[in-house]
Each structure stands twice: as C-alpha cells, then as structure tokens.
Amino acid sequence: MDSLFELLASPAAWAALVTLIVMEVVLGIDNLIFISILSNKLPPEQRQKARRIGISLALVMRLGLLTMIAWIVGLTAPVFDLGITGPMGAHGEVAFETQFSWRDLILIAGGLFLVWKATKEIHHSVDTSDSGELLDKDKGSQVGLNFTSAIVQILLLDIVFSVDSILTAVGMTEHVEIMYIAVIVAVLTMLLAADPLANFINGNPTVVMLALGFLLMIGMVLIAEGFGAHIPKGYIYTAMAFSAGVECLNIWSRRSKAKKEAAAKDAGNH
Fold it and tell me: Which helix (H) or strand (E) holds 162?
C-alpha cells in the first residue's frame, strides 16, 4: 500500500500511466475492429452479447498475463534458430530474423489468421449470386458462423493482441500497478466504444470494406514483426486515421447529396 501511495505522489509515475493508457487504447483499436466486424456477422439480438463477452475475455487475459510477467517476458527468448545466413543490411546485420521466440510465433499465427479472415470476409462482401447481384448482407454474413464460432475466433485474436499489449506495457514501465490501471482503463474504453463503432460500421457498407482493409494491414504487420521486421506503429495508425478521415468525408458528401436530392424531390412534388 505504501508503494502505491508513493506512485501516486510521483509525477513520473503519472506520466508513465497516461502514456501507457494512450498506448493501450491505441493498441486496442485493432482488437476492437475485429470484434466489431465479427459480431456484426451474427443475428442482431446476439451482437451486443458477443461484443461484451469478447471484450471481457480481453480484459481477463490481459490481467491474467500481468500476473505472469516473468513468463510473459520469457516469451521473447529464442526457442529455435533456422540457422540461415541471410543477406547483410547496410550496417552489416542480417536483413531478416532467423531466431524465433514464442512471441514471434504467436504474432505470425495471429497475423495469418487475420489475413485469412479478412480475405474471406472481403470475398463474401464482393461475391455475386447467380443473378449477378451482390449477396444479401444478412444471408451472406451467416455462412459458417454462429455465436460459438464467433466467440472462439474472438478468443484466438484476444490471445494475440493481449500478448502484444502486455509486452508493450512491460517495455514501458516496471510498475505492475501502473500496468493494471492502464489495462483496465483501456479495456473499459473499448467496452464503451464497442457498440457505437460496430453500429457505425454496420450502417455504412463502405466502412466495412475499409475496416477489412485495416485488418489485412494489421495482419501483415503482425507477420512482419514475427519475422523481425519492426514497423513503427505510428506509421500504421497515421495511415489508418487518414483513410478513416477520407471515408468520413465521403460519407458526409453522400449524405449531403442525398438530402439535396430529397429536398429537390419534395419541391417537385409540391
């Protein structure tokens, strides 16, 4: 308890807490987008329940992993080496990683799963029926997916994102108390944002495709990081924010055009 009061009195601890909360919220965006897209494939009465369970599982996993910090840190230790001599980079280092840790393998597996899932959903979105028309959204979305399947898939990605999240936290601060607070605040933020985000994605078909594109990019980034190519997250989230901003302008433009057409039609009727 004394150590907690000491942390509360430390400006450095508060700075670390705020920084870590922001980082955890940003890292949670990936998790939230996946949960939103997957839950929207379920019948309307099951969607909110799936999102609540998915985010609750994310919180349980993150808090559980925090109790095993020594084991989590050990996941970064190499477990095998391919022994390949790769091309040398500009500074004499091997251009790609040949040693793999459990963290690398988890990231690669999670990335492959995300790429597969996003590709499958994109295929369902653009596939056509025999009549040449797009598949009905409700019919096409129910192919091979039920509540249990959705929860299992959310659980698998929760594991990947939780490991990445906790390793990031461990790298930013040594105080477990700060990690606990940051993780809880970040997951509660996800919980509050889940329904509005999912409803927004569901109500705008073009946003669905944009979100699936984000998942593809996130999947490729996870695979690249698993192979030792460390891509600054700032570039990724800046690109996502820019794309989302452009899509918001498109939505605004379409709605404005629709209002003008509706007004012109009403004026013509009178």
Answer: helix 147-172
Spatial distance between the Cα atoms of 58 and 73, rounded to a whole number of angstroms: 19
Distance from C-alpha of 211 to C-alpha of 239, rounded to nearest angstrom: 12
Domain assignment present for residue 239? The answer is: no
Number of domains in the chain: 1
Residues 179-215: tens digit of each pLDDT: 888 889 888 998 999 999 888 888 877 788 888 888 8
Question: Does residue 86 lie in a domain region?
Answer: no
152, part of any domain: yes
Strand-pair partners of 99: 81
Amino acid, single-letter form, for residue 62: R
Residue 261 maps to a domain: no
Identify whether the C-beta of residue 158 lies closer than 8 Å to the C-beta of residue 54.
Answer: yes
Q: Are 7 and 13 in contact (CB under 8 A)?
A: yes
Whole-angstrom CA distances from 189 to 55, 83, 109 are 10, 44, 27
- Site of tokens 């799936």: 50
Q: What is the pLDDT of residues 132-153, one digit of tens each?
A: 444 444 444 444 468 888 899 8
pTM, two decimal places: 0.70
CB 100 within 8 A of CB 77: no
